[in-house]
Amino acid sequence: MTVAPDGKLTTGHIGLNVTDLDRSLAFYGTVFGFEVMAEGKEDGRRWAFLGRDGQLLVTLWQQSEGAFSPSTPGLHHLSFQVETMDEVNAKADVLRELGAEFSYDGVVPHGENGESGGIFFTDPDGIRLEIYAPTGADPADAPVAGAPTCGFF
Questions:
Q1: Rounded to whole angstroms, what are the CA distances from 123 to 9, 50, 146?
Q2: In-domain check, residue 70
Q3: What sections of the sequence does the record tag as coiled-coil (predicted)?
């Protein structure tokens, strides 16, 4: 994390362990439009720094085996905000074309009768991800009653 000039604390970047760097680079590039800012290709030490508009956002480290486990301590999910629900739906279309696994069918509100909402899915290693917009969700019943949608998927 970094401290902005006005004293506010902001997130610097998120680092993720992956099993296949090439596969993850293709996924994150296609879904989020990330560009590779730097990459290590040394055998046994593969990594990539991904960003947009010159800002580092995600780092990938090929140093794990198996699949992401939501039952162990660590990352719960990684969330990305877009401006509009149209953008969320466009990303959902891209993810469907890639064969991504969704936690819910389509856009769901973050909570009961909430205006914010998004899509919940996994990357190729099973890491739980979210793309949401702050407004525009159908204020229908949330898929998880009495709790934030992003908390129990």
A1: 28, 15, 27
A2: no
A3: none
Residues 31 and 82 in one domain: no
CB atoms within 10 A of CB 107: 20
**Of 49, 47, 36, 121, which is closest to residue 80 (Cα–Cα)?**
121
8 and 52 share a domain?
Answer: yes
* Cα–Cα distances in angstroms (integers) from residue 98 to residues 26, 30, 74, 85, 94, in the given order: 10, 9, 26, 20, 6
Closest by Cα among 108, 90, 118 to 30: 90
- Tell me the residue range of the domain where 131 lies: 77-142
pTM (2 d.p.): 0.89
One domain, residues 82 and 59: no
Instruction: Tally the residues of the chain.
Output: 153
**Statement to judge: residues 57 and 81 lie in one domain:** no
Is the model more confident about 150 or about 78?
Answer: 78
Q: What is the CATH number of the domain that holds 9?
A: 3.10.180.10
Does residue 55 have a pLDDT over 90? yes
